[in-house]
Structure formats: structure tokens, C-alpha cells
Design a protein that fits this description.
Blueprint: E1 6-11, H1 15-24, E2 30-36, H2 40-50, E3 53-54, H3 58-63, E4 69-72, H4 79-88, E5 92-96, H5 103-116, E6 120-123, H6 130-140
Helix pairs in contact: 4-5
Length: 146
């Protein structure tokens, strides 16, 4: 089992991308390799803020060997197609909620990722949840593990 962090790419560089990616990269298990947005200025700013490379295209990001997963925070109606492309490229997919704009599109994402043998996750923010605050307290107190 590899101890190297999983290389991720941020797809979309708006406010929610900063929140989600900012939380993910706090883990020693993940590392942000690159980002992509159609807006070159937002992409450059995001890359500078997070210390990652500035991807020139989605296709170029998907072709990278050091990117194992993509974090999709683009407009909701783009999630299914971007997830399909990522799965076909062998990349795991994390998407913001909503997962997609229809049940059919969600099923397409689930089936496509399963067929490609990659993981699909939908990120939900629960940092204010009482149960998660208690879990954090227990972790910090050494009562729950490492």
C-alpha cells in the first residue's frame, strides 16, 4: 500500500472550490497537483493561492499521471459530463452537491464510475454537525484513534 498522498486536481476555481479544496488538502493523504477553470485569471489566482500548477485544459489535467482524482466544483449542469470524462481517464471523482441536475444524470455518473473502476464521492459540508464536532473533540483528546 502506497504512503504517497493522492494527487488531486481542482476543476472549477470559485469560492466553493476554495472551501472544499482547502479542507481536503489539510489531510496528509491528499495533495493538490493542479487546477483548471475556463477563466484564466481565476485559474491563475487559485493556483497561486494553493501552490499548485495551472492546468491549460481539462483534457490536459486528465492526461496527467500524477493526478489520481478530480474535485469538480463547476456549474451543476456540467458535473455528469466532467465525471464521465474523468472516469474514462481512470480518475476518481469528488463532486460538490448537488451531484447532478437529474436522477438520470446521477445514475450515469454512478454507473460510469463503477464501470471504470473508480470511486465517486459527493462532498457535503457538515462541519457544524453536533456529531462531527464531538468526533473531532474525541480525536483531539486521543479517545478515538489517530
Amino acid at each position: 500500500m502506497s504512503t504517497e498522498p493522492v494527487g488531486i486536481a481542482a476543476i472549477g476555481t470559485g469560492n466553493w472550490a476554495s472551501v472544499l479544496v482547502g479542507a481536503l488538502v489539510k489531510s496528509t493523504k491528499l495533495t493538490l497537483r493542479t487546477c483548471f477553470s475556463r477563466n484564466a485569471e481565476k485559474r491563475r489566482s487559485f493556483a497561486e493561492k494553493f501552490g499548485c500548477e495551472n492546468g491549460e485544459s481539462y483534457e490536459a489535467v486528465l492526461a496527467r499521471g500524477d493526478v489520481e482524482a478530480v474535485v469538480i466544483t463547476t456549474p451543476d449542469d456540467t458535473h455528469a459530463d466532467m465525471a464521465r470524462q474523468a472516469a474514462q481517464a481512470g480518475k476518481h471523482v469528488i463532486t460538490e452537491k448537488p451531484m447532478a441536475i437529474s436522477v438520470a444524470a446521477c445514475r450515469e455518473m454512478i454507473d460510469g464510475c463503477a464501470k471504470a473502476g473508480v470511486k465517486l464521492a459527493v462532498a457535503h459540508g457538515h462541519r457544524h454537525s453536533r456529531s462531527l464536532r464531538e468526533m473531532k473533540r474525541m480525536l483531539e483528546a486521543g479517545e478515538l484513534g489517530q
